[in-house]
Amino acid sequence: MKNETQSYPEPAPERRLRSRSRPNYSDRRAVERYLADFPARIFVGQGKDAREYAATVHDISSGGLLIEAPGVPPEETRIRVQFRIPEGVMPEAFIQGVVSTNAAVLHREAGQPLMGLAFEEDLGVRYQRTAWSYLRWLAAAVLFVAASLIMVIKYENLYYFWFDVPVFLYSLLVGGYLLSRFIFAAFYGDSKPLAVLPTISVIVPVRNEEENVTRTLRQLMEADYPRERLQVIAVDDCSTDRSLAVMQASQKIYPELVVLGLEKNAGKRHALAAGVGLANGEVIVFIDSDSFLQPDALRQLVNRFADPQVAAITGHCDVENVWTNLLTRMQTVRYFVAFRVMKAAESVFDSVSCLSGPIAAYRREVLQEIMPEWLSQMFMGRPATFGDDRSLTNSLLRRGYKVVYESKARVTTLVPEDHGTFLRQQLRWKRSWFRESLIASTFMWRKQPLMALSFYLGFFLPLIGPAIVLRALIYVPLVQRTSPLMYIVGITLMSALMSSTYLLYKRSRLWFYGTVFCFYYMFVLVWQTPWAVLTSWRNEWATRS
Predict the structure, then answer these.
(1) How far apart are CA 530 and CA 431, in angstroms?
(2) DSSP string computed for 226-258
(3) Is residue 488 part of a domain?
(4) To bridge 113 with a disulfide, which of 70, 156, 381, 420 should be the other Cys (CB 3.0-4.6 Å)?
(5) Is residue 59 in a domain?
(6) Which pLDDT value is given to residue 26?
(7) How far apart, in whole angstroms, are the C-alpha atoms of residue 92 and residue 95?
(8) Which of 439, 375, 370, 371 shows the shortest CA–CA distance to 399?
């Protein structure tokens, strides 16, 4: 039964685990089922013979339900079921309000009032046929109108350029930068499956994750990847909770799982390095301990190694706890655009600037080449203890390797649910972004010209952003007596560009939160940048309180 406080989909366990089945075999379902605990109504018969029964849904997929319905006569094989899918039970594309549909009774549990139902029409197909048939045109229209109006405003910026050079120059550069990212991302192409899958070693660094690491390891061990070609190594970095005990409990279920407990806290880099020392795969995959793998993610992740010049690949990460509150919903849209637009745009030039912690794969020989430099990195005379992902990526890009993004290798991750934790995380990320971008500035000019220009704009514009916001929203209205309306309209249009892209790809009613996030960034997050720059030498982790 689904935990009532949980705000994200929980897959129902497989009947047969991959590790217990024969080699090269995965007895996976055709569609994912999710644990549930919500009410439903069942209707049997028509007219004066119609009867209604209360029921409880215990798991759900896009194709059917496992439902507890005491009182429904055993001879009934066709029924009508009505329910509302609560937020957090299924992926966001299936949250459609009240569903009323015909269903067939496939089986009944012996001695229990449980029935397995198959819907007359798959929920995903139903959604495409109904609501999505209108929403996709709305998404396309908003995307076109937003892009067109942004271009019109940029033309107006040129016309009025000399009235306020700093604001209009910044506006032109930001608009051009964002539009170019969307245009580059449009050229991102799908990969083709590898003929022969490489052996891989997946390393999971763990620090105080007793609540989540069991699921992380279970989904890795049950991944759709050949058993004899997959090694999973979990490294506990001297947790102060029960993480190590929980990992050892998982090892009893999956004897091939390798569990290593470090005797003292060494930091994420050294925990990963300890795992690499035990790895025997041709490809090394790093996965965060609060990230959850889709069944085919590992197969998809390695596809781009078909190009021998590709040294590393990052996958696609979505938010797991989408439905918790306003903050997690905003992050959901932000994460999607950061990966599917920003990383996809960089991948077109084989120069992704950050191999993200939730999932990234490296050629073993290349990783071993750069490990000594990575482990001994210093910044302003002090050991670098965060920004591991960007630092590792910089080492690869500096050497001329291709670093790319694979959109089909999907994981989800838990994001901060309160503003204090979120702001600490963002400050840490900004510090590592500033430090590693400074380092990358020394060699990114050697990349493809459009990529190099995009990188330097992406570094320079956020640094001056606080000053521009201050000028546009405070100085100009108070001193020049001019309305900041056009600046705010520009922000709104750029947020509409992001939101409509999310709607177009994800078919989700969460698209509006992209606009909310843009204003949250303008009024809150932008002011972290100066402090992050001034304190970039500080090494504390800062996310957990």
Answers:
(1) 10
(2) -GGGEEEEEEE---SSSHHHHHHHHHHHSTT-E
(3) yes
(4) 70
(5) yes
(6) 47
(7) 5
(8) 370
Three-state secondary-structure class, residue 271: helix
**pLDDT score of 542:** 39
Q: Are residues 243 and 170 in the same domain?
A: no
**Alpha-carbon distance 185 to 454, whole Å?**
13
Cα–Cα dist 136/469, whole Å? 34
Rounded Cα gap, residues 353 and 433, in angstroms: 10
DSSP 8-state secondary structure symbol assigned to residue 474: I
* Same domain assignment for residues 170 and 76: no
Under 8 Å between Cβ of 94 and 15: no
Q: Within 10 A of 47 (CB to CB), how many other CB atoms are there?
A: 5
Total count of domains within the chain: 3
For the record, the structure tokens of 367 come out as: 């990783």
HSE (side-chain half, CA atoms, 13 Å) at 83: 31
Q: Name the residue among 170, 163, 240 with its Cα closest to residue 208.
A: 240
Asked whether the beta carbons of 320 and 213 are under 8 A apart, the reply is: no
144 and 283: one domain?
Answer: no
Residues 380 and 265 in one domain: yes
Quick one: 24 and 114 in the same domain? Answer: yes
Beta bridge partners of 317: 411
* CA-based nearest residue to 347, from 397, 387, 288: 397
245 and 366 fall within a common domain:
yes
Considering the domain boundaries, does residue 124 fall inside one? yes
Instruction: Give pLDDT tens digits for 392-450.
Output: 999 999 999 999 999 999 999 999 999 999 999 999 999 989 989 999 999 999 999 99
The whole-angstrom separation of Cα 195 and Cα 124 is: 31
Q: Could you tell me the two tokens for 191? A: 């990969």
Burial 126-135 (b: 16+ CB within 10 A, else e): bbeeeebeeb
516 with 415, same domain: the answer is: no
Q: Residue 336 is encoded by which pair of tokens?
A: 């999607």
Q: Please tell me the predicted confidence (pLDDT) of residue 379.
A: 66
The amino acid sitting at 280 is N
Query: For residues 12 and 222, what is the distance between their CA atoms, to the nearest angstrom?
Result: 13
Q: Which residues pair with 82 in a beta bridge?
A: 41, 100
State whether 148 and 108 are in the same domain.
no
In a domain, 159, yes or no: yes
The percent of the chain in helix, strand and coil, each rounded to the nearest 5, is: 50, 20, 30
The ranges of the chain with pLDDT < 70 are 1-7, 13-30, 95-96, 130-136, 139, 143, 146-147, 149-168, 378-386, 538-545
Contact yes or no for 311/321 (Cβ under 8 A): no
User: How many beta carbons lie within 10 A of that of residue 277, not counting itself?
Assistant: 12
Please state, in angstroms and rounded to a whole number, the distance separating the CA atoms of residues 27 and 19.
Answer: 10
Q: Residue 24: its pLDDT value, please? A: 45
CB 285 within 8 A of CB 275: no
Write the CB contacts of 91 (distance below 8 Å, at least 6 apart in sequence).
9
What is the token pair recorded at 19?
A: 């590790």
Q: 67-101 burial, b for 16+ CB within 10 Å, e for fewer?
A: bbbeebeeeeeebbbebebbebbbbbbbbbeebee
Helices (H), 376-473: 388-398, 419-440, 449-470
